[in-house]
């Protein structure tokens, strides 16, 4: 799976990304301040990493995040990208970033009602505890974006919804309020920009981190989140932002509340996996089967289409395959 990159040490392998610490060419010591963040072509669906990669997916996610980091410059304090000048074997799909202490919360905001938000609304009339007007249906636009955070579950487990008070318990009231405001602003600005390009961003997940150097912390020192003054440090936007993996993108011209929406994301692949053609039983422990070529090609086309529709640029950064 993860590749060897000369001059770098692999420190984490996630569902989709690998993190490497650069090594000092003279001493071999790790650079603790930076990371090489590499997006592979792996696809996850229904909590499984599929055995078939989708070519160029990692490059699309990386390039689209870079474009959004620029667009969001005046919405966030800072983003984590330091340089796009990366080793040739991961060109196009990797960036050097500031190595941050990641806040232990998945910051989700929803502008439209669907998925887990819809399930809660149907049961309680709320989303993440926030009361909503009656009569909303699958795909309804919410009166305003709602922050619906969740836990960061360990690999193999589901993220669980976390009430806002739970975020306050984890990171303190000041940082919790800041995470909420930043997340909602990112989704609002994202939707202003996407609307001109025929896309609705139904919901999205972002991650933030703090720079240990700004906190005066050394490697291994623990953070007391509640003691952090969010006005005195950058709450840095990290990971990926407003991509088809982290967000639900819908086609605006086909949007029709009251039924599932036409989306840009992995729907093609999910539909195939749950169809009789795949022969896969989602409820079983069995891993999903390999994807047929046409499903891979359609999925790749969806990712590229999302990139091109949003940025208005052709996708010209194919990267060598990486699974
Ligand atoms: P998921 O995306 O579903 O939450 P994951 O952890 O498997 O799960 P990947 O995208 O594969 O996700 O891995 C990327 C990892 O890198 C995440 O754990 C993320 O928190 C971390 N990360 C992203 N940016 C930074 C950064 N600037 N500093 C430190 N860690 C980062
Ligand atoms: Mg991730």
Keywords:
binds magnesium ion; binds adenosine-5'-triphosphate; 7-stranded mixed β-sheet; alpha+beta; 6 helices; 323 residues; single chain; 5-stranded antiparallel β-sheet
What's the helix and strand layout?
Elements: E1 8-13, E2 17-22, E3 34-39, E4 44-45, E5 48-49, H1 57-71, E6 78-79, E7 81-83, E8 94-98, E9 101-102, E10 107-112, H2 115-124, E11 126-127, E12 130-131, E13 141-147, H3 164-171, H4 173-195, E14 199-210, E15 236-238, E16 247-251, H5 267-274, H6 293-311
Helix pairs in contact: 1-6, 3-4, 5-6
The protein binds adenosine-5'-triphosphate and magnesium ion.
The low-pLDDT segments are none
Write down the Rg: 20 Å
User: What are the bound molecules?
Assistant: adenosine-5'-triphosphate, magnesium ion
Sketch the topology as an H/E string, one letter per element: EEEEEHEEEEEHEEEHHEEEHH
Fraction of residues in β-strands:
15-25%
Number of helices: 6
The secondary structure category is alpha+beta
First-last Cα distance = 6 Å
Biggest sheet: strands, sense, closure? 7 strands, mixed
Fraction of residues in helices? 25-40%
DSSP strand tally: 16
Return the average pLDDT rounded to an integer.
Answer: 95
Q: What is the chains' assembly state?
A: single chain
Please state the overall shape, judged from the principal axes of the Cα atoms: globular
């Amino acid at each position: 799976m993860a590749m060897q990159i000369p001059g770098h040490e692999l420190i984490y392998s996630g569902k989709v990304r690998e993190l490497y610490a650069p090594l000092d060419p003279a001493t071999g010591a790790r650079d603790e301040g930076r990371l090489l963040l590499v997006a592979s072509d792996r696809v996850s669906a229904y909590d499984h990493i599929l055995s078939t990669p989708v070519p160029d997916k990692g490059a699309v996610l990386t390039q689209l995040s870079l474009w959004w980091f620029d667009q969001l410059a005046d919405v966030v304090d800072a983003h984590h990208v330091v340089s796009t000048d990366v080793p040739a074997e991961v060109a196009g799909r990797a960036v050097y970033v500031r190595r941050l202490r990641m806040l232990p919360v998945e910051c989700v905001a929803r502008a439209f009602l669907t998925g887990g938000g819809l399930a809660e609304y149907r049961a309680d009339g709320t989303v993440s505890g926030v009361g909503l007007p009656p009569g909303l249906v699958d795909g309804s636009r919410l009166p305003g974006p709602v922050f619906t955070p969740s836990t960061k579950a360990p690999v193999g487990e589901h993220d669980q919804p976390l009430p806002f008070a739970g975020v306050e318990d984890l990171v303190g009231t000041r940082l919790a309020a800041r995470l909420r405001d930043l997340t909602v602003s990112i989704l609002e600005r994202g939707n202003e920009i996407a609307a001109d390009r025929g896309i609705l961003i139904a919901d999205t997940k972002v991650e933030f981190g703090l720079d240990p150097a700004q906190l005066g912390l050394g490697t291994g020192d623990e953070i007391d989140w509640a003691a952090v003054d969010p006005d005195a440090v950058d709450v840095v936007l990290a990971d990926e932002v407003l991509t088809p993996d982290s967000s639900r993108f819908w086609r605006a011209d086909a949007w029709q509340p009251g039924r599932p929406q036409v989306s840009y994301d992995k729907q093609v692949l999910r539909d195939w996996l749950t169809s009789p053609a795949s022969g896969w039983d989602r409820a079983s422990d069995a891993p999903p089967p390999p994807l047929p070529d046409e499903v891979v090609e359609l999925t790749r086309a969806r990712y590229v289409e999302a990139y091109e529709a949003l940025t208005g640029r052709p996708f010209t950064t194919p990267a060598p395959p990486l699974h």
